[in-house]
Q: What sequence folds into this?
């Protein structure tokens, strides 16, 4: 199955969001887009051009944007407030917690430029804590798609979903390998490649890193089961446990701090149900810096080699 | 520093901003060019801060709230001798401390900034602490016009007036544009003067690209005892390069080789003209 995972041409996940919004603009009149002065970065210009009356520019006032989104949802709209991931989460956490999560508002927070791969802007903008923060909010759905096609499909699926949600995506061009016509099922893990020696659960940009690592490991006779956890919450526990029953060990991979993200979410399921050795591929509790994704990912432990090393380490612990 | 020397510094700083942004192939060109005259006057004429006194608790403080225009601050700090200017050849590169927004890893920086709407609250805290410690220092920040939409700025403004922080001066780099377009089209901030005055600050307006006017204004701080000072510095985004002035795409555009050559030629002509004036004088 590994050889079927082919990059059909690099595209940014944020462009997938823009394409999803463009589609929603045509099919769902309740969808409203909001943005805090980052329209071009979020790729929603087509939505705005075709639906100017359904776009609200908040300017650089993210807290205000989240409050307005909560208010719009009360009136039956489906607001999609969007900005960079650091401003969409940490900056406005209390607004999200009180006005959206606690108030059970049907708001879809859409966040680009998450993680190290935003590159040159450096640490202030490279949020590596957002999955943890959003996962902790009661009732919140947290989604981190892996490529353009999946981000587009997830965006469209969110409009049908009822309840607060966080959609996390990124800035760089990245391999696009999932089907263009996929139906995105929130909360349903995606089997990418079956294997027997180790279960690799990955999310976001790191999915491609694990595919490349699995190809390298296959040459050494190591069989990896690759599972794409696009929805970190609610987690597809059945899929996790079924895979682990077969392989007996786990590697998790995410573009996020090792605390609070996908790795911890998987570990919670394992410790309560089926404890097995687990290794984390994640940022080791630090902030980022400027640089290109290809420079930053290996430096912060998110390279293909880091996945390979984690697999070998966990196999020894089996 | 004489008026002519200040003018010369501004042109040279603009050349450096473009040189390092061009080399890095990254950076916020338009905003750095709009605010550089303000930073020039602050660091060379107004503030008591230098590499020699940077560890002195009594030094004046500067926090750049519009952190994305960090290139302007880098070239001024290098010029003052905080670090070798050639270090800026690593701007925005992997493993460089000279990242895309202000960081205290760089000597001369007081505060990490980047996300907008943070600087004024931090400066208010600095100014309040100085009052409590009876230190005569002053605290300065440069705000972007787009970031005036951040509610946190207005919260800080209430606080600064309440605590009578007349050792605090905020300068608005009012180039009238932000990343998406004109302020007036995104979220209008007018009438900004009346709003700030209503929050209890004393406001002066000045041509923010005129170093002489800026120096005159900033030399009579505080504008009124017991009140914080606010300068509306009317600037032009991309100032100093004909094809960048007021053109939105230069918010963080990087010039092509041809554009870079043209920009540097214009600035060099401006520099030579100033040098001739100095000789004549």
A:
């Amino acid at each position: 199955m590994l050889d079927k995972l082919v990059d059909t041409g690099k595209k940014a996940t944020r462009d997938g969001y823009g394409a999803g919004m463009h589609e929603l603009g045509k099919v769902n009149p309740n969808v409203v887009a909001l943005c805090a002065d980052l329209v071009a970065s979020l790729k929603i210009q087509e939505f705005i051009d075709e639906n100017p009356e359904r776009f609200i520019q908040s300017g650089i006032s993210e807290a205000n944007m989240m409050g307005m989104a909560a208010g719009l949802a009360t009136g039956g709209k489906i607001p999609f407030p969007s900005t960079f991931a650091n401003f969409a989460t940490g900056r406005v956490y209390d607004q999200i917690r009180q006005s959206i999560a606690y108030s059970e508002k049907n708001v879809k927070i859409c966040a680009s430029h998450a993680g190290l791969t935003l590159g040159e802007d450096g640490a202030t903008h490279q949020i590596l804590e957002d999955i943890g923060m959003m996962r902790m909010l009661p009732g919140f759905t947290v989604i981190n798609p892996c490529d353009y096609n999946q981000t587009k499909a997830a965006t469209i699926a969110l409009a049908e979903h009822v309840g607060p949600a966080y959609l996390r995506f990124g800035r760089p061009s990245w391999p696009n390998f999932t089907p263009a016509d996929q139906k995105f099922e929130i909360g349903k893990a995606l089997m990418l490649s079956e294997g027997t020696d180790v279960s690799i659960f990955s999310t976001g940009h790191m999915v491609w890193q694990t595919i490349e690592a699995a190809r390298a490991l296959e040459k050494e006779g190591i069989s990896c089961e690759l599972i794409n956890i696009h929805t970190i919450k609610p987690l597809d526990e059945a899929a996790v446990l079924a895979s682990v029953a077969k392989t007996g060990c786990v590697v998790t991979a995410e573009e996020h701090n090792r605390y609070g993200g996908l790795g911890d979410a998987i570990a919670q399921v394992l410790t309560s149900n089926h404890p097995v050795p687990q290794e984390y591929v994640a940022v080791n509790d630090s902030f980022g810096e400027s640089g290109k994704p290809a420079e930053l990912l290996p430096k912060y432990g998110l390279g293909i080699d880091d996945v390979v090393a984690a697999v070998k380490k966990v196999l020894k612990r089996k | 520093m004489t008026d002519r020397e200040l003018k010369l510094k501004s042109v040279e700083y603009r050349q450096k901003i473009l040189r390092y942004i061009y080399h890095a192939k990254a950076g916020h060109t338009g905003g750095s060019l709009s605010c550089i005259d303000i930073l020039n006057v602050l660091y060379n004429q107004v503030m008591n801060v230098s590499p020699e006194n940077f560890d002195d608790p009594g030094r004046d403080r500067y926090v750049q709230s519009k952190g994305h225009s960090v290139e302007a601050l880098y070239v001024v700090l290098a010029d003052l001798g905080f670090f070798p200017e050639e270090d800026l050849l690593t701007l925005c590169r992997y493993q460089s401390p000279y990242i895309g927004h202000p960081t205290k890893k760089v000597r001369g920086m007081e505060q990490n900034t980047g996300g907008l709407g943070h600087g004024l609250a931090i400066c208010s805290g600095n100014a309040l602490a100085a009052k409590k410690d009876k230190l005569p220092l002053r605290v300065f920040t440069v705000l972007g016009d787009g970031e005036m939409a951040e509610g946190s700025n207005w919260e800080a403004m209430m606080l600064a007036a309440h605590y009578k922080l007349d050792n605090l001066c905020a300068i608005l780099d009012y180039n009238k544009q932000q990343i998406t377009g004109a302020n007036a089209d995104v979220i209008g901030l007018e009438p900004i003067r009346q709003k700030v005055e209503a929050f209890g600050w004393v406001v002066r307006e000045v041509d923010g690209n005129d170093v002489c006017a800026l120096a005159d204004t900033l030399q009579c701080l505080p504008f009124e005892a017991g009140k914080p000072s606010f300068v509306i510095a009317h600037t032009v985004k991309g100032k100093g390069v004909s094809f960048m002035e007021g053109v939105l795409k230069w918010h963080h555009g990087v010039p092509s080789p041809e554009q870079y050559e043209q920009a540097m030629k214009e600035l060099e002509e401006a520099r030579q003209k100033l040098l001739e004036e100095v000789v004549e004088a």
